[in-house]
Write a structure and sequence with these properties.
Helix 4 crosses helix 5 (170-182). The relative contact order is 0.14. This protein has a six-stranded mixed β-sheet with strand order 6-7-8-3-9-10, sandwiched between helices. Strand 1 and strand 2 (47-58) form a beta hairpin. The chain has two domains: 32-104 and 186-299, Rossmann fold (3-Layer(aba) Sandwich); 116-185. By secondary structure, the protein is of the alpha/beta class. Helices cover 32% and strands 25% of the residues. It binds adenosine-5'-triphosphate and magnesium ion. Adenosine-5'-triphosphate binds next to helix 2.
Length: 299
């Protein structure tokens, strides 16, 4: 027969449970935040791109950075990397003041050096970033080679990496760029427009890959994009930039007519259609990708 637990046993069980919950909570607290921005003003050419912006991103969040051309998405990422000094305010990355060259931050820039004509193999391209010099072909030690193999496996590009870059499609090169950004096990990943110039099928594949990696590695990801729709369902929260301001929250909280109208200081309509969301200003979709692709080339 099954014995019912004595009161002392259940008290003991309750105590263990409380200790366990406290440990889990403390562990989450110890992880801290990935990004803390306070009253931040970023200026370029004497003009404020962002003015008095404050927000906090937790250690294991997947945040989409949205906003039209010129909203300040790239400028914000450059500031989080320590490449641009704030005109005012503070930035803390993983609990420490922002500092250029922080190995805990991985970055995939929006504008990538032309390499499509290169005979360089994918492996060498990724390996070139290990030692910090992107295009050199360093002789790597065992640990570095293992690190290259690790990041290539993470993005499922081990076979791809044997081929020359010039023979790879845009989407395949994008995976190698993601592998580069994952070198050194960053805890915060800044991905600037990883979907640019990919067709919808490949856009969804990149979003799913980043989402899976973000969960598996338990890291924070800031993922900028022009269009919200490919990211719907994958994001924890969205950081919408516009008119020098920022709004951070769940998609349903931020992508609304009243919130975006307040952000821009003009009337914005949000239209939901067949599971997709369109942000409209004066009858025009605001998030359309206006980038010409001829003026710069992707790797
Ligand atoms: N070096 C610079 N000097 C002056 N202004 C600059 C400089 N670099 C960027 N800007 C301006 O800062 C603003 C923000 O640019 P940023 O590149 O951050 O926008 P973005 O949101 O990334 O746009 P996109 O969607 O086109 O990539 C733009 O108005 C841009 O023209
Ligand atoms: Mg940009």
């Amino acid at each position: 027969m099954h014995k019912s637990p004595r009161p002392a046993d259940s008290t003991q069980a309750m105590r263990c449970y409380i200790i366990l919950i406290t440990m889990i909570r403390d562990r989450a607290g110890a992880q801290g935040n990935a990004v803390e921005v306070g009253d931040l003003t970023l200026a370029l050419g004497g003009r404020a791109v962002l003015a008095g912006v404050s927000f906090t991103i937790a250690a294991n969040e997947f945040v989409g950075v949205l906003g039209p051309n010129g909203a300040g998405k790239t400028t914000l990422m450059r500031a989080l990397l320590g490449l641009l000094r704030p005109a005012r305010g503070s930035i803390a990355i993983l609990g420490a003041p922002v500092a250029f060259g922080n190995p805990a931050v991985g970055y995939m820039p929006q504008f990538r050096t032309a390499a499509s004509g290169m005979r360089l193999r994918g492996w060498d391209f990724v390996a070139g970033a290990v030692a910090g010099h992107r295009w050199g072909l360093p002789l790597l030690g065992h640990a570095d080679r293992a690190e290259v193999a690790r990041v290539l496996a993470l993005v499922d590009a081990t076979a791809l990496a044997r081929r020359p870059l010039r023979d790879l499609s845009g989407g395949e090169r994008q995976r190698l760029l993601l592998a580069q950004a994952l070198l050194g096990r960053p805890k915060l990943l800044l991905l600037d427009e990883p979907l640019m110039s990919l067709d919808p099928h490949h856009q969804h594949a990149v979003v799913a890959l980043v989402r899976d990696l973000q969960r598996e590695l338990g890291i924070a990801v800031l993922f900028s994009a022009h269009e919200l729709n490919p990211l719907l369902g994958a994001l924890d929260r969205v950081l919408y930039l516009g008119g020098g301001h920022a709004a951070l929250g769940a998609v349903d909280e931020v992508i609304t007519g009243p919130v975006l109208s307040r952000l821009y200081g003009s009337e914005i309509d949000v239209i939901r259609l067949a599971g997709r969301i369109f942000v409209m200003s004066r009858g025009q979709a605001m998030e359309r990708d206006h980038h010409g692709h001829a003026d710069h080339e992707h790797v």
